[in-house]
Amino acid sequence: MHTGPQYTSTQPQGPGSGGGRGAALLIGGLAFAVVFLLIVGGTVGYLVLRTGGSGGGGAQVTSSSTAPDPESSQATTSADATPTDVEEETCWTPEGTNRTSSNPSGKLRGGGLQFIPPAEFDGRTTAWWFSFLDDSQTAYATVEENWQSTLTVGEVVWQPGVEYPGAEAASERITTCIFRASIWGDTSGRSLDDEVTEPVTISGMPGYRTTATVNWESSDLERTDAALISVTVLDTPQGPSAFISETAAGVAEHEEGAQAAYESLTGYS
């Protein structure tokens, strides 16, 4: 902003001199006029410079109150934007049960797999307690009061927003989650032992099978002191699917039934 020069007025030399007083007044008036014109001229010049004048040919000056540059604004937005990340759950379980398959005669079907249930496994239910499993069907056999061996088939579904890790990692994760599940009654001192994962191919479908043993130190059970777990995840034409057996160790008919069910496992078209 242009402010103009500063001026100092001259005082008269003596009182009572009319001519000197008039001259002084005249000089003072002229000085005021000059200062006023300089101030007004500077102000008008500043306004013309800032706005470009009425003809639009002057220089443009951008103030801090004008709209930001679109590209600069976009860059700031991109830098400040925080993507919505999904927090992965170790043992994610689908909400509710979504039974979409129908059992063919003499078989239990879930996902892209089906098997023949052994005669000893005459109970039927839906395996709501397994992580990463939907469209499931379970056959179970009673070991003793409040304890069963189970054979389950179903669709493998992964947590939304989390990439499916493949059959090998899926079989291992499901095994871990079975061990962590609240299905072990009053057993205590549990451990997951002898875990082995190996590639398998069933009916031309590749996948992985994880086997392990859940041991415990004490319980009220009389017929068994451990559970044998087997989780087979296969890449079927209908998508990843699993066959899961959890059988009472030492109960021969259940162990044999689980093996027979595994050997009867197939896909379908």
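the 2nd protein, sequnce then structure:
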Amino acid sequence: MHKEAERIYRELGTPEGLAYSLANQALLLAGKMGRPREALPLVEEAHRLATEHGLHAVAKQIKPMLDLVRRRQP
């Protein structure tokens, strides 16, 4: 479901929705599935998108997720 949402947000060019979609996928991968390596590029892209598009509140929400996933890297 998250991959489909990601595809749609990319197609529509909706950076806020895409950032949330990527962050949610990263959270599932890192937290529930124990796959932080796969999660890192997703949450990094989510944070970069939010920052580049001036979505400061979104970037602020995603930053702790980014820090958490980075800490879980082997």
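The CA atoms of residues 9 and 26 lie 16 Å apart. The chain has a mean pLDDT of 94.
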